[in-house]
Amino acid sequence: MKHKALLSLFAVLMICSAAVAKSPIVTKIISYNIRTLARDGNNSWQYRKHATKNMLDKHKPDAFGLQEAKMAHLQYIDSACPQYARVGVGRDDGKTGGEIMAIYYNKERYDLIKSGTFWLSETPEKVSRGWDAACYRTTTWVQLRDKESRQKFFYFNTHLDHKGAEAQANSIKLILEQIKKIAGKKAPVILTGDFNITPESSKFTPLNEQMKSARTTATITDHKGTYNAYGKIEKAPIIDFIFYRGKNVNCLKFHTLDGDYGAPYISDHYPIEATFYIK
């Protein structure tokens, strides 16, 4: 009798565990080209860094990916926003040198299961420059697990080369290959980044065949330009994107964050935000 009772209890616990594992979540992701530490006059980092904190405090993303980040950016965010933990290494040396494709996640909500970085090149496993690229380029990725629901998903963050056309095309193909290798074929995946190409480019064809654009599929969306160049160009092009895949992943909202965060420009790019329902 006691044995049967224990078996029944075990069965109930297994059912409850399975139910928790399948609980849906809503997660908000931001992609943000923070602009490197260039001498930009009144738009230099020292005059706009508070706007980054204001933006994060206002929108409260569950995770966000940066492009063009240097250690000074990351040290400021680490101090100003301690609720987030980060991963990512420097593209120039695999440590802290050069651009860091940092991913931050809310450590109060998510557990980090695993993470990594690969280079956009013919040898992605080591520090290297690919094809006709002008710079070393990387993709950082994480697998996160919601502490309450136990729901898991992968998040990849990247920055394609700004000059090499061959590098841009091949980098997209490589990222898709790496997503399959790292995340498999079915797991929920979110991909963000500055792609340095506009939506009509044929280079996006492989990506559009395998993933969905948050901008074009969200229930609530906009199609505003993202590269503002600190107001020096008349019409801002769209070069920043959020993509996703997964049978049970839907994009609820997409928003270009061009509001006032306490500085004339938060960066020479507007951050973009997408809210996902994952079940």
Based on secondary structure, the structural category is alpha+beta
Characterize the biggest β-sheet. 6 strands, mixed
Based on the structure given, which CATH architecture is correct?
4-Layer Sandwich
Rg from alpha-carbon coordinates: 20 Å
> How many domains make up the coordinates?
1
Spatial gap, N to C terminus: 38 Å
Count of DSSP E strands? Answer: 12
Which helices and strands occur, and which strands form pairs?
Layout: H1 2-21, E1 25-33, H2 45-59, E2 63-67, H3 71-80, E3 84-87, E4 103-106, E5 110-119, E6 138-146, E7 152-159, H4 165-183, E8 189-194, H5 205-210, E9 212-213, H6 214-217, E10 240-245, E11 249-256, E12 272-278
Parallel strand pairs: 1-2, 7-8
Antiparallel strand pairs: 1-12, 2-4, 3-4, 5-6, 6-7, 8-10, 9-10, 11-12
Helix pairs in contact: 2-3
Task: Give an overview in words.
- With 279 residues, this protein is an alpha+beta fold.
- It has six helices and twelve strands.
- β6 and β7 form a beta hairpin.
- α2 (45-59) crosses α3.
- It is globular and about 50 Å long.
- Residues 9-20 have low confidence and may be disordered.
List the keywords.
single chain, 279 residues, alpha+beta, Deoxyribonuclease I, Chain A, six-stranded mixed β-sheet, 6 helices, 12 strands, 27% helix, globular
Summarize the structure.
The protein is of the alpha+beta class and 279 residues long.
